[in-house]
């Protein structure tokens, strides 16, 4: 634990970083001592990832200094994980060594069931990839007093996977390592961290021991006083004809699934890694290949699913993997927003109406509070949470009949999260049927009318009303009841 | 995130970064004007440059279109060459009238593009390899059709297509202009163009956004093939013979122009006007060196270095955009 005597392994002083048009870090200083877990929190775009990237040497600071204790190495788990997609998990774990499948199995196995570690990493689910990245950062230390930096590494992990990670992190800290932990999940911050550093608009606004902070105070510090709404969802039972009906759906980790989605309802999908939870939305959308005995949309059969076919039937999809599937990083935000549906912006000569397209992008930027408000900026240059807002905005743009969401609020700060929940709820109120697959139990409780808990590719339970509790989600997910 | 002023738009547009080719052009112009004024500053030189390079411009656009959608086409030179020979063959050996011969050649070019696309999208061969293979097949076809000889006696009329002038400018320049304007419109002003860029940058994300990536790729290769065929037909008309050695030499200048062009105007995006400006700037450099008496191998050296530089520049651009 942090006592004043432990040496500072990492000392950051007066760090400044500007990008054209904005200051991402404004004289930020912080220290990490051995045995200490320091959480860095702040709203989307507050400069957390920029800080991490400077520590990693990916960005050069414009001013200030980063000093490490003699012999201390920094290990990173980046927000985008920085894995090599073409290589397998085994190879990614052994970039500077010879690949060792047994060792890889053991490392990965600490976080739950071992998945296909000989498959290219790009074919894994986001959660599996997170496990690989984490295993890599925690592997092969020659010296206990290192510093590990985790940038939103838990966003795509399920509660139990998070627990395993936290155990590993605590063990490291107990052995004298320092930990920097970036997260939007304030409960995690409060359980894991010894000290919390709060960034707001690139400035450090607080640096306090966790013991003096509560959830409410932390929210206040992050938002700068604006209250974040916390209200729970009234579960409602809808009747009426389903807009989407599927029988005997299978593909990927999904073995057999029946589902009816009715207009206006929000249906959650829960389950541990490999349960089929993460495969379901992309399977329904036609992004992943699979088959179904029967699938109808608005009463009409929809035999061969494809993204184009789904879009034209009013089915929108937010992939769990924002960087690879959800966006084209080298196009501008505006171009990303309008890509799936350009027809409505097309003029008489088959041309895109620049005026209408810009207006549309501006409207979405305002509605979803994307910052900075520059639709002409390349997508890649937005912070993680703002990228997620753009991807959400794009899916909601044309009032879809069915909205399929895979981890819709990963990397999103509390304020924006509330905005996204509101958007999903108002879409539902307007008649959209929503399916949310999420590893975040709170999110499912907050949003959903009913939740399907998947286990081994099948529906293990359907929870509604008073049965819909965090406890039940976990026990059903593991088949403990 | 308190906001210092954004970069000034006019200054950004005129920065060396954005229009380096134009600065390079100005420098070269001054150097050659001082060094060899009596040769370099002749209107005839400039007119012939405009005319001669129009075909390179067509070849560059033929390479540009597939590249936007993600297929690097190493066969453009061979495509131009093959279609040039085919033009001559259809006129002299098959005796087709021009009214049939021209459409036949363009159709053949489109078909070559279609076959290449099948190899890429159906057999899933990487575009570089597919087009390299296609290039070799076309070279063989050229040798076979021509017997590795020039095909002469094309009749008196064919020559006029490429040499007729309007307002002092020959037909190929107008053809290039039309093709360039259409390509620009499609790439920058229509949904199809937007989808092409998306497919080229991230095919998987494009697919999930409802873009039919395979069909787009096919479309660009077919259109590129037809444009390369047009270049081939005009080439044969220009030199009034089917020459099996000329076509392949279009590859390097075309690709160099496309890559260097991507560093111009559109911050790393492949684009038509950047391509054409880059191509003419390179051509002026070559011309100046030739007039100054450099040996012919300087051409290859110049284009080779320019290509390496262009690609290095566009990579640097990408990295700096990420870091800044
Ligand atoms: N390469 C870049 N060029 C221009 N602006 C950038 C670049 N990288 C980051 N930014 C901007 O700097 C600000 C800080 O971004 P950063 O990624 O550090 O935020 P963050 O705190 O990690 O947010 P999130 O919680 O959304 O991940 C954002 O406004 C972002 O748009
Ligand atoms: Mg971040």
Automatic annotation (TrEMBL), chain A:
SMART domains according to UniProt: AAA
Pfam entry (one): ABC_tran
Chain ranges of the ABC transporter domain: 10-481
Keywords recorded for this protein, A-Z: ATP-binding, Nucleotide-binding, Repeat, Transport
Gene Ontology terms for molecular function: ATP binding
Transmembrane segments: none
Matching InterPro entries: AAA+_ATPase (IPR003593), ABC_carbohydrate_import_ATPase (IPR050107), ABC_transporter-like_ATP-bd (IPR003439), ABC_transporter-like_CS (IPR017871), P-loop_NTPase (IPR027417)
Protein name per its UniProtKB record: Sugar ABC transporter ATP-binding protein
Organism: Myceligenerans pegani
Lineage, top ranks: Bacteria, Bacillati, Actinomycetota, Actinomycetes, Micrococcales
């Amino acid at each position: 634990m942090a006592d004043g005597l432990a040496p500072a392994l990492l000392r950051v002083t007066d760090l400044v970083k500007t990008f054209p048009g904005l200051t991402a870090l404004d004289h930020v200083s912080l220290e990490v001592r051995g045995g200490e877990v320091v959480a860095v929190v702040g709203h989307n775009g507050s400069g957390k990832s920029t800080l991490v990237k400077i520590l990693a040497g990916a960005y050069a600071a414009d001013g200030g200094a980063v000093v490490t204790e003699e012999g201390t190495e920094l290990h990173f788990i980046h927000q985008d994980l920085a894995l090599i997609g073409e290589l397998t998990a085994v190879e990614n774990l052994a970039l500077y060594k010879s690949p060792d499948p047994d060792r890889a199995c053991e490392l990965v196995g600490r976080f739950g069931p071992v998945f296909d570690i000989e498959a290219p990493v790009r074919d894994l689910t986001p959660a599996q990839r997170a496990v690989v990245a984490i295993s890599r950062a925690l592997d092969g230390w020659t010296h206990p007093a290192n510093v590990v930096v985790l940038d939103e590494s838990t966003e795509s992990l399920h509660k139990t996977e998070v627990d395993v990670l936290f155990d590993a992190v605590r063990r490291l800290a107990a052995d004298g390592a320092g930990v920097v932990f970036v997260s939007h999940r304030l409960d995690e911050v409060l359980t894991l961290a010894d000290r919390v550093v709060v960034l707001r608009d690139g400035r450090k606004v607080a640096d306090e021991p966790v013991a003096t902070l509560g959830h409410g105070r932390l929210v206040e510090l992050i938002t700068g006083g604006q209250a974040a709404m916390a209200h729970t969802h009234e579960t409602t039972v809808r009747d009426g004809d389903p807009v989407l009906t599927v029988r005997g759906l299978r593909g990927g980790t999904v073995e057999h699934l029946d589902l009816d989605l009715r207009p206006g309802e929000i249906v959650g999908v829960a389950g541990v890694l490999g349960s089929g939870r993460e495969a379901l939305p992309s399977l329904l959308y036609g992004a992943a290949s699979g088959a179904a005995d029967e699938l109808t949309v608005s009463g009409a059969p929809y035999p061969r699913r494809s993204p184009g076919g789904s879009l034209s039937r009013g089915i929108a999809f937010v992939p769990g993997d924002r960087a690879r599937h959800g966006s084209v990083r080298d196009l501008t935000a505006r171009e990303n927003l309008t890509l799936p549906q350009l027809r409505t912006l097309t003029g008489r000569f088959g041309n895109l109406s620049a005026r209408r397209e810009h207006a549309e992008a501006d409207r979405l930027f305002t509605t979803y509070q994307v910052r900075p408000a520059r639709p002409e900026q390349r997508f890649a240059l937005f912070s993680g949470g703002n990228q997620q807002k753009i991807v959400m905005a794009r899916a909601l743009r044309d009032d879809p009949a069915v909205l399929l969401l895979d981890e819709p609020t990963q990397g999103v700060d509390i304020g924006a999260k509330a905005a996204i929940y509101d958007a999903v709820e108002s879409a539902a109120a307007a008649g959209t049927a929503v399916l949310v697959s999420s590893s975040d139990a709170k999110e499912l409780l907050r949003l959903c009318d009913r939740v399907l808990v998947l286990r081994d590719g099948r529906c293990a339970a359907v929870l509604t009303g008073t049965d819909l509790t965090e406890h039940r989600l976990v026990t059903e997910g593991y088949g403990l009841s | 995130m308190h906001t210092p002023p954004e970069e000034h738009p006019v200054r950004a547009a005129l920065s060396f970064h954005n229009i380096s080719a134009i600065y390079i052009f100005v420098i070269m112009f001054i150097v050659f004007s001082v060094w060899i004024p009596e040769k370099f500053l002749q209107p005839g030189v400039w007119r012939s440059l405009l005319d001669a390079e129009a075909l390179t411009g067509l070849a560059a656009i033929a390479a540009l279109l597939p590249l936007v959608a993600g297929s690097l086409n190493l066969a453009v030179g061979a495509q131009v060459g093959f279609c040039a020979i085919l033009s001559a063959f259809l006129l002299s050996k098959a005796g087709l009238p021009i009214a049939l011969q021209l459409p036949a050649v363009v159709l053949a070019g489109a078909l070559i593009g279609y076959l290449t696309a099948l190899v890429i999208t159906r057999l899933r061969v990487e575009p570089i390899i597919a087009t390299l293979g296609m290039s070799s097949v076309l070279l063989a076809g050229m040798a076979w059709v021509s017997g590795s000889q020039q095909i002469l006696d094309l009749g008196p009329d064919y020559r006029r297509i490429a040499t007729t002038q309007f307002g002092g400018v020959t037909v190929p320049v107008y053809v290039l202009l039309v093709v360039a304007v259409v390509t620009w419109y499609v790439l920058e002003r229509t949904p199809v163009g937007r989808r092409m860029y998306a497919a080229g940058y991230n095919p998987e994300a494009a697919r999930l956004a409802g873009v039919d990536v395979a069909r787009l790729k096919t479309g660009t290769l077919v259109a590129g093939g037809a444009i390369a065929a047009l270049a081939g037909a005009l080439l044969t008309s220009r030199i009034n013979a089917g020459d099996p050695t000329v076509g392949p030499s279009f590859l390097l200048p075309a690709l160099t122009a496309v890559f260097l062009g991507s560093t111009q105007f559109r911050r790393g995006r492949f684009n038509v006007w950047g391509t054409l400006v880059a191509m003419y700037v390179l051509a002026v450099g070559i011309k100046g060196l030739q007039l100054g008496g450099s040996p012919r191998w300087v051409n290859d050296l110049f284009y080779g270095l320019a290509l390496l530089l262009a690609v290095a520049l566009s990579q640097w651009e990408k990295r700096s955009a990420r870091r800044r």
